[in-house]
Amino acid sequence: MSSVGPTSPAGDLRVDDALPPWRAGAFAVFAVIGLGVSLRLLFGSASSLISEIRDGYHLGSLEVALLTTGPVVCLGLGASVAPRLARRFGALPVAAGCMALLTVGSALRAVPGWPVLVVGTVIGGLGIAVANVLGPVLIRLLFPHRIGVMTGLLTALICVSAGIASGITPPLTRAFDGSWRLGLGVWALPALIAAAAMGVLAVAHGRGLRRDAGTGAGSPIPVAVVTRAGANRMRWAITGFMGLQSLLAYATVAWLPTIYRDRGVSADEAGLIFSALSVASIVTALTVPVIATRLRSQSTLAVAVVALAILGLLGVLCTGTAGAWPSAVLVGLGQGGALSLALVLMNLRSASAAEATALSAAAQTVGYLVAAIGPVAMGVLHSVTDGWSVPLIALTATMIPLAVCGVIAGRPGLGTTAEHDVTDGAPDHRAPIHSSSARPNP
Question: Which of 72, 237, 319, 432 lies in disulfide reach of 372, CB 3.0 to 4.6 Å?
Answer without folding.
Answer: 72
